[in-house]
């Protein structure tokens, strides 16, 4: 894996700035090549019972650091100043995509009831912040995608990633609980009040406290620039540890901590010219997508006994890309000040990549479902046997489609996205 990252570095300028191919697509491709489907050098699924645990924690660490970085990289007080647009882009858009994707899954795979389809859809609801950051940062994206669009997409991806928990929780509770009343009660108390709200408050408090402590240390010359950069990793991991220990939403806590520590812009000013954090983020992203490429269960994509066939999976990917976000954002974009015309709304609706977060949530769901028998004894076991197969194929399709989305807008001599989609009409 280290050799693959070294190879990326040797040709990164050619690949990213000339061919417009980012580490998400390349990492996944390398993972497939070295994985069991081709060379069989690296096979995460051969680790038996440890597979899900290791996969869950690898995805968790990458997501936490990526979400903290997203919070830091956003302009000062961004979440407050752009609350109106974010409110529309996050909660109702997620809810719309959740029920629509569940309906598509239920139609294509009728052996899954609608509640089970909602559980799988919850894994595919959040926009992946790691893929989003990898695609929207860099010279090409900066030149060709308007700043407001890049910021709102990154903030939305980071915010809705932590909010995937409630969507997953209600689906799991309805699947494993015998009483609907009990399921809804646990969803409200545990899924929303404890995990989401406590996670957000905890992250914000930790980020604010560290911000003040670092300002005091800096004013007394107790801290140097290198130590500022060290906090980039230390605080994100510390926040994850505290939130995970008490059972709160660690992803939302990490994003809230990143926003809070850079709320006044000082932390960002101290770290923006240092490439160390970006290098760490880049290396983690490369390793993560190499892992995902090797983790993909190609053997399971043709499983007629579960009603899963390659043709159905391809139809599912196309339907999700077209229907999951585009119709809703096209309908409500006038309520999002950052989106100025229908062409930008179309781009923003299309730009909803699924990657690390989908793998993480599906693996989390798998750990909370019963171990499936052969054949599955009930709907919960059937869901456990199929959830990662369906989610992983959609992730693969999204990596290919969304990973190549930005270069698509470079067709022709136009300078940036606003020009290419029609500045006059905006």
Automatic annotation (TrEMBL):
<feature type="transmembrane region" description="Helical">
    <location>
        <begin position="345"/>
        <end position="365"/>
    </location>
</feature>
<dbReference type="GO" id="GO:0030007">
    <property type="term" value="P:intracellular potassium ion homeostasis"/>
</dbReference>
<keyword id="KW-0472">Membrane</keyword>
<dbReference type="GO" id="GO:0015385">
    <property type="term" value="F:sodium:proton antiporter activity"/>
</dbReference>
<dbReference type="GO" id="GO:0120029">
    <property type="term" value="P:proton export across plasma membrane"/>
</dbReference>
<keyword id="KW-0813">Transport</keyword>
<dbReference type="GO" id="GO:0042391">
    <property type="term" value="P:regulation of membrane potential"/>
</dbReference>
<feature type="domain" description="Cation/H+ exchanger transmembrane">
    <location>
        <begin position="10"/>
        <end position="409"/>
    </location>
</feature>
<dbReference type="Pfam" id="PF00999">
    <property type="entry name" value="Na_H_Exchanger"/>
</dbReference>
<feature type="transmembrane region" description="Helical">
    <location>
        <begin position="20"/>
        <end position="42"/>
    </location>
</feature>
<dbReference type="GO" id="GO:0036376">
    <property type="term" value="P:sodium ion export across plasma membrane"/>
</dbReference>
<dbReference type="InterPro" id="IPR004712">
    <property type="entry name" value="Na+/H+_antiporter_fungi"/>
</dbReference>
<keyword id="KW-1133">Transmembrane helix</keyword>
<feature type="transmembrane region" description="Helical">
    <location>
        <begin position="188"/>
        <end position="211"/>
    </location>
</feature>
<feature type="transmembrane region" description="Helical">
    <location>
        <begin position="275"/>
        <end position="301"/>
    </location>
</feature>
<feature type="transmembrane region" description="Helical">
    <location>
        <begin position="232"/>
        <end position="263"/>
    </location>
</feature>
<feature type="transmembrane region" description="Helical">
    <location>
        <begin position="313"/>
        <end position="333"/>
    </location>
</feature>
<keyword id="KW-0739">Sodium transport</keyword>
<comment type="similarity">
    <text>Belongs to the fungal Na(+)/H(+) exchanger family.</text>
</comment>
<keyword id="KW-0915">Sodium</keyword>
<feature type="transmembrane region" description="Helical">
    <location>
        <begin position="54"/>
        <end position="74"/>
    </location>
</feature>
<dbReference type="InterPro" id="IPR006153">
    <property type="entry name" value="Cation/H_exchanger_TM"/>
</dbReference>
<keyword id="KW-0812">Transmembrane</keyword>
<feature type="transmembrane region" description="Helical">
    <location>
        <begin position="86"/>
        <end position="109"/>
    </location>
</feature>
<feature type="transmembrane region" description="Helical">
    <location>
        <begin position="157"/>
        <end position="176"/>
    </location>
</feature>
<protein>
    <recommendedName>
        <fullName>Cation/H+ exchanger transmembrane domain-containing protein</fullName>
    </recommendedName>
</protein>
<keyword id="KW-0050">Antiport</keyword>
<dbReference type="GO" id="GO:0005886">
    <property type="term" value="C:plasma membrane"/>
</dbReference>
<dbReference type="InterPro" id="IPR038770">
    <property type="entry name" value="Na+/solute_symporter_sf"/>
</dbReference>
<keyword id="KW-0406">Ion transport</keyword>
<feature type="transmembrane region" description="Helical">
    <location>
        <begin position="386"/>
        <end position="409"/>
    </location>
</feature>
